[in-house]
Amino acid sequence: MERMNIAELQQKLTAAARLQKPDDRVPYAFEKRIMALIAERAEVSRHLLWARGLWRGAVSCVALAAVCGAVSFFTPAARDNSNDLSQDFENTLLASVDQADTAP
Amino acid sequence: MERSEAELIAAVLKGDRASFEPLVAKYSPRVFATARRYARRESEIEDIVQEVWLKAFDKLASFRGEAPFEHWLMRMAVRTCYDFLRGHQRNRESAFSEISEPEEDWLERFVADPSSAAEDADAAKLLINRILEKLSPEARLVIQLLEIEDRSVKEIAELTGWSVPLVKVRAFRARGEMRKILARMAKDKYL
Questions:
Q1: HSE (CB half, 13 Å, CA atoms) of A66?
Q2: ipTM greater than cut 0.90
Q3: What is the pLDDT of residues A18-71, one digit of tens each?
Q4: Chain A contact for B120, CB < 8 A?
Q5: Distance (Å, whole) CA B50 – CA A31
Q6: Which of B23, B27, B102, B148 could serve as B123's disulfide partner, Cβ 3.0–4.6 Å?
C-alpha cells in the first residue's frame, strides 16, 4: 500500500471541517425554558438563604452550649456552700419568712 | 419601542428578570452554533447552551459594556464548551477500527490520488469529526478556533483567557497531536 501523505491529509481534512457550517437552529421556546430555570433558581436561592441563616444560628447555639458546658465542667466546685447558687436562691426566697421568725 | 441591549442589561441588573429574555432569544442561535462545534448529541448541546445562559445571568454584573455583549457572551460560550470537552473525553482512546465504509473509501481514494478525494464529501466530514474527537480538549479547542474558524492568536487568547504565548504553544502541540492521530490511523489501516 502506498504511503499516506499525513501533512496533505491534515490539510484536506481541515479544509473539509471549514466547509461544515454549524447548525444554529434553536429548539422551540428555548428562551422560555431558560427564563423558567432562572426563576426557579431564584426561588431556590431564597430558600437557601433562609436555610443558611438558620443553620448558622443553630451552629452558634450549639457552640455556645458547648462552651457553657465546658466552663461548668472544668470550673472546680466551690468548697464554701454559702456561695452555692441553690442556697442563695433559697435564702432570697425565704428571706421574708426568716425575718418574720426573728421579729420580736 | 424596542429597547437597546444596554437598556435591557441595565433593567436585568435592577432586578427585572424578564428583560433577559430578549437577549436569550437574540443570541441563542450563535451560542447553539458554537456548542454544535464541540458536542454531537442534541441533549449535550442544549445542556451547554443552558449553562452558558445561566452563567451569563449570574455574571451579568461583571459585564462592563466596554465590548459588545455578544463578545462577552461568546467568551463564556467558548469557555463552557472547553469545560464540556474536559469533562467528556470518552472517545479519545478508541481505535480506528470503527471507521465506516465511505470513510475508508475516501481514504483509499486519497492514498491513490490525493486530488481525487473531495473535501466536501460527507466521508471527509465524518473523518475529521472522528479525528477532532480524539484530540485532547486543549488541542481540539485550538484547532477549531485557529485552523477551522480561522481566528487570530490574539482573538483566541481573548476567547479562552489564555495568554498569547500559551495559545501559540498549544497550537504547535495541537498540530503535532493531530498529525500523530492521523499517522496512527494510517498505521492502523494500512500497515
A1: 6
A2: no
A3: 998 889 999 999 999 999 999 988 777 778 888 889 999 999 999 999 999 998
A4: yes
A5: 9
A6: B102
Task: Quick: pLDDT tens for B67-126.
Answer: 899 999 999 999 999 999 999 876 566 656 678 888 888 888 888 888 887 877 888 888
pLDDT band at A1 (very low <50, low <70, confident <90, very high): very low
The domain made up of B94-191 has a fold known as Arc Repressor Mutant, subunit A (1.10.10)
* Domain segments of chain A as ranges: 27-73
For CATH 1.10.10.10, list the domain ranges present in chain B. 94-191
- For residue B165, what is the enclosing H or E element? helix B164-190
CATH of domain B1-88: 1.10.1740.10
A43 Cβ under 8 Å from any chain B Cβ: no
